[in-house]
Amino acid sequence: MSKVSTVSLAPTRDPAWLGRVFGLSVVLVLLWPMLVATEFKPWVFLEPDNLRVSASFIASFWPLAHDTEFLQLVLLKTWRTLAMATAGITLALVLAIPLALINKRVLSISALSGRMAAWPWCMRQAARWLLIVLRSIPELVWALVFVRVVGLGPAAGVLAIALTYAGMLGKVYSEIFESGDPHATQTLLRSGSGRLQAFFYGLLPTHAAELTSYTVYRWECAIRSSVVLGFVGAGGLGQQMDNAMKMFNGGEVATLLCVFVALVAIADRVSAELRKALG
Questions:
Q1: Are the CB atoms for 168 and 218 separated by under 8 Å?
Q2: Is residue 11 one of the residues assigned to a domain?
Q3: Contact present, 167 and 132 (Cβ < 8 Å)
Q4: Which of 5, 14, 32, 214 shows its CA 20 to 30 Å from the CA of 135?
Q5: Could you read off the pLDDT tens digit of each residue along the chain, which spans 279 residues?
């Protein structure tokens, strides 16, 4: 009896193409009203008048401003920008770390039995809502408020970054802590260890690299935020950029942009080295 061998043919089309086309169509249908509502019209950039103005401004970027007096001023503004971002992140950590620990269920001793006690639950909800409020208000709004309170200068920027980034850091720290295996932490708590001991020996070692990477990333974001805050009177490179833009001094703008790129590259390198050291 002869056997007939069958050869399976490869499909001529992707079996999932219909689902992908449908998903893309749904995205476009949902996105179109948003583009209309925001008056998104990219073809405006191609109009002759707009092209001429843009080309003229970009052409003014060269040569870069490099006179000694200006570079000394940029160096001073760069130091103030770094100081503003670093001080703001440090104050944010002072707020974010306790709020993140309060917001974490695994460090609750009463929750070991299955249900958290009423008082710890209320504290957890209060910390959660405080984090929501802090990160809901943009740092630009805080800066406008603090400029009126403490006056023009980096102090307003430091306070603005501290409050907004405390909410962001606390929220993400809580999620990072919740994503890990709580077995070691809970074992320490059941053995009679305090919450801080359980945190430092059970919870923190597991997430140290991820926490460090995210914190350095947020420091990088704080540098960019401090630049934006300078436009509302918080000093630093942002204020210098605002002055250069108002004077249509493309050379100074280009030099400041190069400094921004260098700062972000340095922050990225610091993050990579820290991850390698903790890895």
A1: yes
A2: no
A3: yes
A4: 32
A5: 455 455 555 566 667 777 788 888 888 888 888 888 888 888 887 888 888 888 887 888 888 888 888 889 889 988 988 899 899 999 999 999 888 888 776 655 555 556 666 777 787 888 889 999 998 988 889 888 888 888 888 888 899 999 999 999 999 988 888 776 666 666 666 666 666 667 776 677 777 888 888 888 888 888 888 888 888 877 788 888 888 888 888 888 889 889 888 888 888 888 778 777 766
Q: Are 233 and 152 contacting, i.e. CB atoms less than 8 angstroms apart?
A: yes
Question: Whole-model pTM above 0.85?
Answer: no
Tokens of 108: 């609750």
Read off φ and ψ for residue 233, nearest 5 degrees: 105, 15
Q: Contact at 8 Å (CB) between 180 and 209? A: no
Q: How many domains does the chain have?
A: 2
4: in domain: no
Same domain, 123 and 200: yes
In eight-state DSSP terms, residue 112 is G
Handedness of CA 26, 27, 32, 37 (dihedral sign): positive
Q: Does one domain contain both 37 and 148?
A: no
